[in-house]
Each structure stands twice: as structure tokens, then as C-alpha cells.
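Troubleshooting log. The previous run stalled partway through. Resubmitting the same two chains, unchanged.
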Amino acid sequence: MEYKSFISDTIAQLGEEPNKLIPLLQQVQEKYGFIPEETVDIIAQNLNLSANRIYGVMTFYAQFKLKPCGKHLIRVCEGTACHIKGAEGVYESISGKLGIHEGETTADDNFTLERVPCVGCCHSAPIVVVDSDYHGNTSANMAKGILENYK
Amino acid sequence: MNKITSIEQLEKIQQEKQALWSSGIKLVPVCGVCIGGQKLAQAMRDEVTRQNIADKVQIVETGCQGFCKMGPLVNILPPEGISQWQNGTLYTKVKVEDAAEIISKSVMGPEVIERLLYKNAKTNQRIPVIKDIPFYSKQSKYVLERCGVINPDDITDYIAWGGYQAAHKIIKTMTPETVIGEVTQSGIRGRGGAGFPTGIKWKFCRQSPGPDKFMICNADEGDPGAFMDRAVLEGDPHSVLEGMIIGAYAIGANYGYVYVRAEYPLAVKRVRQAIKQAKEYGLLGNNIFGSDFSFDIGIKMGAGAFVCGEETALISSIEDRRGMPRPRPPFPVAVGLRGKPTCINNVETLANLANIINKGAKWYTGIGTEKNYGTKVFSLAGAVRNVGLVEVPLGATLQELIFDIGGGAEKGRKFKAVQLGGPSGGCLPEKLLDIKIGYDSLIQAGAIMGSGGVIVIDNKSCMVEVARYFTSFCQKESCGKCTPCRIGLMRMKELLERITSGEGQKGDIELLIELANSIKDTSLCGLGQTAPNPVLSTIRQFRHEYEAHIREKECPAHYCKPLVKFMVDTDKCKACGQCIPACPVEAVKGKKGEKVTIDVTLCTKCRSCIEACPFDAIV
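Second attempt completed without errors. Output:
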């Protein structure tokens, strides 16, 4: 029920915009942290699209997640400036510390680790973004300390 | 709010705001996008409240001021006022603890706080006036004129600066054809990278038949290492909206979109606020300035696909489809969004337009060089001393950009190459730095202008690895529609991985060149056609590095992990101990005051010690 009303409310908010699918998926993800499987059929009915087509869109764009993330999302930037300034070492240090790789979630569901293309903060490379906090000028050794703040 | 219908109303808002600015209230611009900037701005506001001087001092949280390396930044404006900010004082690397002192001494009083001034690294002198700082003195700020000074969340700040007067001028006094004529004469070329003349694009779109047309701002700044568009959207969003109004009027569009990356949440927020305010003031919506011209703008957020910067893929994405490009022609100016003629312009292109309309094409062609008029915004990043956002006239040299403004390679290392144009671009070595920056000159040299990302690479980076990085990026971002890009880039990536892991074979370089050329020739869209450029340009300029990897199994830059062992050069080591805490696995053995050693059995080759060492002693 909750999904149904959230989706129909969001569609109403989008008003006269003819292309509502991607904005709607973005809002579903914003609200639930991922796109729950049940919502796909509801969206399909509401927008008169096939579920197949919706999955096509969801799997194309990196933003959409088909399974839930941990409590905190760690994004290690791998833009060019970060790469030149040692992002690889920062990623490996975090990955080693948490015992997970890119795209995985820790067993206690506390952290999900991702590598993302440029977040546009090249001036403070290498960058690690945890949830919406930007940590700049990081190093492999600093990574541990950053994670301490997110329990 | 009454909707603005005349120039008098616009000028009234301008005068009221200017009167407020000159009434003695002290504005203090604080860069709110530097890391730590928001906290600092809050601390400054708290201090104003604490001292109970809110009627005298206003903290302005701005967009990027450019000198990111020195952030967080605080501007102390000169008595002449905000428009002359370059005569003011810049406080650098300001901490929250400095807030009270700045307000008491420099805002309420005339004192200059010496320790917060920028220190020239060469002369060791502190520089009190912004325009005397080499980073600023060599720049020409037109697009970025207001960025970092005004409050981007307040439309009246933009209007006070003459904002929306160009929109008024074209709607009230010019025909669409004369607008197109003026922009064509200015010679401005698309700042997204391809450099197509904007006026001609508009002419084609105007000439396409049909009542419904669309104006799109491409803010899908996907090149890793580029942040110009983000800075403009966060620092001066109304300049982009005004550019869109001018373009829409010229081509005859009544609706437009800003397509902006979801990875830029602040930019999305600022643009949303700007659109809302522009609507309230009647500058967007029906019958703008009381004319029969109506234009409205919506926001579309990208969902994380680099290829959506390509215009046909961008259109697919707005249409809720997988962001895959299609063959051109037909070009979007003829058949675009929802089948209608559509003009897509880049953020920076649009931000130039109000100036061109207000000051005229002749003024614009007075900046830059032949066929490359105006300025270009670049984001300087990587191993350069003065990381930041800069704007220079076209025709300036790379030398000026990287050494005079950028200060050269950081940490006293040696400059090796500059990478221009992101994953579609190329690397240029030191001997080509005298090239004048322009669309055609850079292509001739084997790079491209691109959207403006400039990554400086020093002698600690391996060029084969840089090529592998870009190829891997493009391979991941390939949409998969056409075979050369989907499979060809995968094979190139595998070859490069083989070389960087020391398993390269004789003939690999030739195979890379052959593959690269066929991918260039046969791919469907710009992504595939340009993806091999970083490999080709590094082979052209740094072939010896490829050969060293393949023949000697050596990485000359000591970068590629399988080919290096980290050691301490005891002649260079000054026993400063900085590398010891930098190591995440305690592989650096020793203590401060003693020359250190590295335990290779523990070392993960993460390079943290190399970055920490000020003496270049770890090899």
C-alpha cells in the first residue's frame, strides 16, 4: 500500500511532464535507498509501460540500485585527478579494512562500498564521499579514521 | 512579487540592491563549496549574531571563487564595493577558529590579518590585494566574473549586476534573426568540447520547420577531472538561465530543460532555486516582459551515465529510455527531443551569451585570437600546485595556464605531461607547452580542447597506466550498442593491463594502434570515436615508456605495481619521519630522526609514503 500511494503521489507531483519514468525511479530510490522489486510492477501499471522496459532503464544507469545498501554508503572517487593522486591506494585500504569489494555490503549492513567516476571535487583529490559528507585530500592511512565516525 | 514587465522595473531592483550594497552594510563573501567552506560560513554567521551586528555585516555564502587549493576562502571587499572585488583582500585556508578575529579586525575594523594572506611560494611574500596574486592576475574573468562573489540563491544579486538586461534587450528590441546574427558574428564556439559555432547551430534550429522546439542546457559534465560547469551552476546559475532564454528566443523554443548530473546535488538545488525565483519575477513563464514570448525550464537529472553527454544519448535519457546514441544525421537541430527540433548548448556557452548581447559581438571578438574568440574556463587539477578554476582568453599558452597561473608541478616534482579533454583527449609533453590554446591548435598537437578539464601529470605517474585508466573508464561507460566500442575497448584495455603488469609482448604497441584506429573509424558516436585518443597520444609522445614496460619489464615512473619494489634512497632521506604514520600497514620501519626502511613483505605499494615524502626519497 505504502509503495502504491508514494508512487501515485509522486506521479501527480511530476505534473504535465510527459517523461516521468526516470524522475520517478530517482524519487523511489531517494525514499527507499534502492528500487524494491514490488515497485516495478506498480510503476509499470501507473505509467502504462512494461516491466521489461523499466528494468531496461534501471540496469542501464549506474544510479539505480536493485538491492538495498548498508546504513552508510562509501563512494571512493576514481576521477582522473583522484587517480593521479592515489585513489587506488585509498580504495584498497578501505576495501581491506572492511573486507568487502566494490558493490558489496558489510555483513553487519553498516557500509556499502562503491567506486564512482568524478564527483567534481578534483581540487581536493583524492575524495571519499560517505553518505553526503565529502572528505578531501585523503590518503590510504586516513581512510580508517574516516570510517570511525560512521558507526 | 509583481512580475517584471519593463526595463524600469528591472533597473529599480538593480538600483535598490546597489543602494543596499553601498549603504555601509558590509558584505563578506565566503566560498561555500570548498571543503570546510559551509562550516566556516556558519561560524562566521554565528559570530555576527554573537556580536549582534547583523545590521552591519552580511555573510554571503558563494559558489567557487576559483583558488580551490587555498580554500576555504574569505573575501574582504574593498571600499569601492563588490564589483571591484579584485581590489579586495583574500584570506586563504581560513579555519573556523579564525572567524571571530576576521569579523572584529578586518570586517568591522581596517586591520589586515597577515597570516591568512596568500604567500607567494617563490618570493615568500604575503600578497594583500587579490589582483596581485599571480593566480588571479593572469586571468580574464568574464564567465566567472560574479562566481564566488554574489549570493547564487538570490536573483536580486544577479539583477544588481545587470542581470536579465540582455534578455530584455533581445525580447523587446531584437528579432530572433538579429540575435542569431549577433551571436554568429561573435564567433563563439560550443564550449562543451566540439567547438561548433553556436550561431550556426541556432540558425539551423530556427530554420527547422515546426511550432514546437526545445532548448536544452547540457550540464552532464561527465569528464572525470572537470568541474567548470558545476562551478558555474553553483556560483552563478542565473547567467545560465538567461543564456537559455536568449537561445530559446532565437530558435523559437517555448520549453527547455537543464540536464544536470545527479552527482552534483548542490548544483541541482541551486538551479532549482534559480528557476523558481525567475518564475516568480516573471522572467520565465508566459509572456516574458509582457511580450508574446513564453519560455519555461524544467530540470532533468542524469542517472549516472557518461555517454549521456552525447546529445542524442542525452535526448534518449530525457525521453526515459536507455541513454544510447543514434546515428546522425538527422541532427537534433532537425529531429531532436520527442522528434522536435532541439538545440543543445553547454553550460559555459550559455553563460557567455548575456555578455555578448550586452556588449556586442565586436567586444567579444576583441578577446582571444582568430577563429577562437572569447575566454575558456578550465579546471586545473592533478599534480599541479594551484589547483582551481581559471578563465583565460583563448590564445593564451599552455605554459601560461599551467606554470604562470597553475604554479607548475607541486611538491617540487617535475612536470611530465598535461592531459586535456578527458577520456576523449590527449596528453601533451613539456616541449609542446608553447602552443596557443585554441580548438584547432590543440587538435593539431594531438589533444583536444574538450570541456576544459586540465590534468597535470608529474614524473611520478606512468603514461601507460594513464592510458589504461582512460581506456578502462571508456570501456565501463560504453553503452554497448556498437561492436567496435563495446568489444574493441575491452581488447585495448586487456592489452594495456598486460603491458602494465609486465607481461607485454613484442608487437603489442602496433596492435594497440591498429585497434585504436579501427575503433575510431567505425564507432557510432563520439564516445567510441574518441576513446582511443589517450592511448594514441601517449604512444605518440611517450612511446619509450611503453617499450620499457614491454622489453625491459620496467616502469620508468616506478608506478606499475607488478614492476616495482618500494625502497628508500638513503642519500635523499632526511629522517623527517613523515612517511611512518602515512603507511596504512606499518611497512615503513624506523622512527623520526632515523633513516627509514621499507619492509617489502608488508608493503601493499599503495604509494601513501611516496605522496607523504617531501624529499622524493622513496623510489
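Takeaways: Chain A touches chain B through 50 residues (CB under 8 Å). The mean pLDDT of chain A is 93.
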